[in-house]
Design brief:
alpha/beta
Length: 142
C-alpha cells in the first residue's frame, strides 16, 4: 500500500505553541553579538532573547514544507512517554522543554533577567534578517 507522501513531525506540545526564532543563526547572530558587546552594562549577567521571527511549532513545520516543497503534518502526542518512545535517549529532555512551552505559551521566554532585541537596539542588517524559510532552503534535506 502506498504512503500518504507526507512528512510527520511528532511533538508533545500543541501545534499553536509560540516559538521565537533567530532565523538563520549564521547570518543573524552577528547583529546580536555586536549589540551585546557594545552595551556590557545592559547585558552583563542577563540573558539576551535573540529572535527575529515569531511563529509556532506547526508554523515552523509549515515553513519547512514551503521551503522544501514537501507536505508535512504536525502530530501532537499526549504524553512524554510516547514522545520518548519515538526519540529514546533525548525525547524526555526535549519533550519536557516542549511541554513547558505548550503550558507557558508566550511566557515561555520570561522569568529570567531577559533583554529583548528592542531593548538591546539590535540593528537590522541592510538586506534585513535572514528568516527561517531562507535558512531551510540552504539545507540539504536528503
Amino acid at each position: 500500500m502506498p504512503t500518504a507522501g507526507k512528512y510527520i513531525q511528532i511533538g508533545p506540545a500543541p501545534a499553536n505553541t509560540p516559538i521565537l526564532s533567530i532565523g538563520d543563526a549564521r547570518a543573524n547572530i552577528g547583529s546580536f553579538t555586536n549589540a551585546i558587546l557594545a552595551q556590557p552594562s545592559l547585558t552583563h549577567g542577563k540573558f539576551v532573547l535573540a529572535y527575529v521571527e515569531e511563529t509556532t511549532v506547526a508554523g515552523l513545520l509549515e515553513t519547512w514544507g514551503k521551503a522544501t516543497g514537501k507536505q508535512a503534518v504536525y502530530v501532537e502526542v499526549k504524553s512524554l512517554q510516547e514522545f520518548d518512545g519515538v526519540w529514546p535517549g533525548w525525547g524526555q529532555e526535549v519533550g519536557v522543554m516542549m511541554e513547558f512551552w505548550g503550558v507557558a505559551g508566550d511566557k515561555s521566554w520570561s522569568g529570567e533577567e531577559i533583554v529583548t532585541p528592542q531593548e538591546l537596539g539590535v540593528e537590522v542588517p541592510e538586506k534585513g534578517f535572514v528568516g527561517v524559510e531562507e535558512a531551510y532552503k540552504t539545507v540539504s534535506w536528503e
